[in-house]
Amino acid sequence: MRKALLATTILAAMIAAGSAQAADLATKMPVKAAPVAPAFSWTGFYIGAQGGYAWAQNDFSNTHDLYNTYADDASYSLDGGLVGGVIGYNYQIKNIVLGVEADANWADLTGSGSIVRPGQYDPLASTCIVSNNPCSSKIDALGTITARLGVAFDRVLLYAKGGAAWATTSHTASNTDFEYPPASYSATTDSTRWGWTLGAGVEWAFFNNWSAKVEYNYIDLGSTDVTFNFVPNTYMPAYTSTVDQTINLVKAGINYRF
Hints:
With about 260 residues, the protein is mainly beta. It has 1 helix and 8 strands. The protein has one helix spanning about 1-25; strands spanning about 45-60, 75-95, 95-110, 135-155, 155-175, 185-205, 210-230, 240-255. Strand 2 (about 75-95) and strand 3 (about 95-110) form a beta hairpin. The longest helix has 25 residues, at about 1-25. The N and C termini lie far apart (about 85 Å). The model is unreliable at about 65-70 and about 115-125 (pLDDT under 50).
């Protein structure tokens, strides 16, 4: 009886110890999965710097010329570089990115027309007034105010944009008379013109708050009348011509998002 009781006691103790060990194993904490990185978001304000190259087209129509016997229409191109800054805001909904953006740029786009002497007719030549000097034009600043619509592929954003555009332009016309210098005259007209723009680009967020972009814009400043008030006006009174201007530009830039 004593042996049976001892054996029973030992068996019960072994069962109790096994149950306690099993309970200890059941209360161990499960292994945690690795944390998932949050999805990248384009939402937020940003500022940036940019630079690029632009080429433009000037088309003059001398519909107001009192001396149209001698004057021809003019068509010539301008080109040059630009550099400036940008500010904007993006809001992302799933993979759609909505935004607004404004930029302003210093520019140096210049060009001039061909020479035509009064009384000569050459369909391959061009001038903006009766002149034996080429007419010249310059764009020294331009900018846009646009809405943006894009599709985000994580850190890559493809977008289109459209809105208003402006540019400060000047045109110079003159005539130099070497035989009788007092008959020479010259005039320059300056204005800030408004039009519309469309564009598209791609932007890559290469670091947490930094991104780089490449973008193309087309700007149409429409048609407007410009008046040349010649000095002196003894031999050439004020002259009005209609000018149509378009600009193409390619920009590369870097943005910082807040």
